[in-house]
Amino acid sequence: APEQAARMKKLQEQEKRQKVEFRKRMEQEVSQFIQATGEPRRRFQPMNKIERSILHDVAEVAGLTSFSFGDDEDSRYVMVFKKEFAPSDEELEAYRRGEEWDPARAEERRRLRELAAQQEEAELERGPAPPGPPNDYKDKYRHLIGSDAAKAAARTMEANKAYGCVPVANKRDTRSIEEAMNEIRAKKRLRQAEDE
């Protein structure tokens, strides 16, 4: 047990020393980054959770903005931004998706969004569309009814023998409906009388 305790204490001291050394190294890198004039942001190599927290702390003390990106624990990395070049929400979203930030593409997307918003605003100013069907039912049946008005089409319509239209003169039965019904009733009565 005493040997284990001594080993544990030695490991803890070694980890503490490594953390202090890592912090000093990160402080030097962050100070170099601050002094570099042409560099608005710096991406650090992937590191574990403790190292990332140390780097975030160093960046906060230095007055910088820092964010972690990456999906799994092994590939997560830290990006540090100078205050005057703080990232926009779109830039952060691009880094979260694992893409490189392209300001020209972002500007194009922003312009398209503004244009869409202006069009939507113009639609609202025009007011709602008048109620009614979106199209005319006659368009659907134009091949059947033609493009003439209904009354004009009715006047000019001619019977087509192919559809079975027969003129009255050619019909065999010239009786009216009442006459035909009376005849049918008379036959029915006659049949019932014969059955009785």
Automatic annotation (TrEMBL):
It holds the Pfam family R3H. Coiled coil: none annotated. One of its GO terms (molecular function) is nucleic acid binding. Residues 20-83 form the R3H domain. It comes from the Eukaryota. PROSITE patterns: R3H. This is SPAG7 protein. The lineage of its organism: Eukaryota, Metazoa, Chordata, Craniata, Vertebrata. The gene is Spag7.
